[in-house]
Amino acid sequence: MFDRFESGEQAILVHVDFPAEIDREDLSELKLLVTSAGVETLAVVTAARSTPSSRYFVGSGKAEEIADAVKLHGANIVIFNHSLSPTQERNLEKLCQCRVLDRTGLILDIFAQRARTHEGKLQVELAQLRHISTRLVRGWTHLERQKGGIGLRGPGETQLETDRRLIRGRIKNILGRLDKVQKQRQQGRRARQRAEVPTVSLVGYTNAGKSTLFNRVTESEVYAADQLFATLDPTLRKLELPDVGAVILADTVGFIRHLPHELVAAFKATLQETQDADLLLHVIDISDDRQKENVEQVEAVLEEIGADEVPQLLICNKIDKLDDGVARIDYDDQQRPIRVWLSAQSGAGLELLRQALVERLRPDMVDVSLRIPPSMGKLRGKLYALNSVTDEAVNEDGALSLHVRMSSVDWRRLCKQVADEYGDSLQGFVE
């Protein structure tokens, strides 16, 4: 295997145009990925084919052109904007005499740089091991023979078989640890469900502005940058909304077209927050020329992880980059918010987002006036604890007149508590 440079890698990029939409990739997105990985682009080699070549992915003539570009520019890595088979990688490395990385390997490398939490690092390592396990032979072609020496002669496993066994053991170990993390997350979700705290999950194409919006709404300081996959580890924050109460807002990893299956499988515990959410805020970079394709890719990933049935509120972000961008809410025929136009960077439209969230999450409300005798001061305390008292007055006889507004769920729960504690129905105190 070729030496891996810790920093300052210089690359030749390879992009192939295919007629089929399913095989097509975006060259500008590859350049963004390469920049996000901290790699300098020396040259770009483009080609057009109807189908990939089994030997080099590109034709033999184009492969020679890539090898010449490596020598000419002194590059130490070649990066393809497509997924390569292990055989294609080996053949290209032999020809170019440097490391060859495909799109999947590049995304995995960015994820490895971004992982901060223990869980995130485990998930990335799992994805990398699954990807590397099919490419082991590249590193051990000189050790295919069986081990020799005193006490090791005769039947035994090759170095390659040893490495495969070690990788299988490591994958099993990581899966066990991630299973514990997933159970802990499930406990947290069950606790929120018991407390009937709604969860809102931010989803969207990478670099759509999810973390910037998250910071604006929750007044947090989650890392946000104008680069792909700036956010990797999920972050949860509590948000207070009128008539709704506490809401959990989750910032998640961005999606990308042809997201490697290894990553989808590895990030199952993280993406569970999206599956179990009450509402998805689908953030769209409205200034991006590829917004339609990006939305389709996000919908495809949501379907793959089983979150396509979760209700969505579209967030058209970056209106500050449009000539006619105006903050507004779009409603459907039932007067339900379906789209919010805003700018997370400038803050325009953030109040409209809060308004739309209240309208989408607000439960059935109970709005009543209560007359409580002085002996039931404890009930007054419970009403204030629910943050439901909007007006209060003291009558001549010492009784309290309270105007309260709360969700029907809280009302039913309070009615049961009053019946158990005082033996009276709360309805009897309604004026």
TrEMBL record:
Species annotation: Pseudidiomarina atlantica
GO CC aspect terms: cytoplasm
Quaternary structure, from the entry: Monomer. Associates with the 50S ribosomal subunit.
SUPFAM superfamilies: EF-G C-terminal domain-like (SSF54980), P-loop containing nucleoside triphosphate hydrolases (SSF52540)
Residues at which Mg(2+) binds: S211, T231
Matching PROSITE patterns: G_HFLX (PS51705)
Annotated protein name in UniProt: GTPase HflX
Biological role stated in the UniProt entry: GTPase that associates with the 50S ribosomal subunit and may have a role during protein synthesis or ribosome biogenesis.
Residues the record lists as binding GTP: 204-211, 229-233, 251-254, 317-320, 343-345
GO molecular function: GTP binding; GTPase activity; guanosine tetraphosphate binding; metal ion binding; ribosome binding
Source taxon at top rank: Bacteria
Entry-linked Gene3D superfamilies: 6.10.250.2860, GTPase HflX, N-terminal domain, P-loop containing nucleotide triphosphate hydrolases
A Pfam cross-reference name: GTP-bdg_N
Family note: Belongs to the TRAFAC class OBG-HflX-like GTPase superfamily. HflX GTPase family.
Compartment list: Cytoplasm
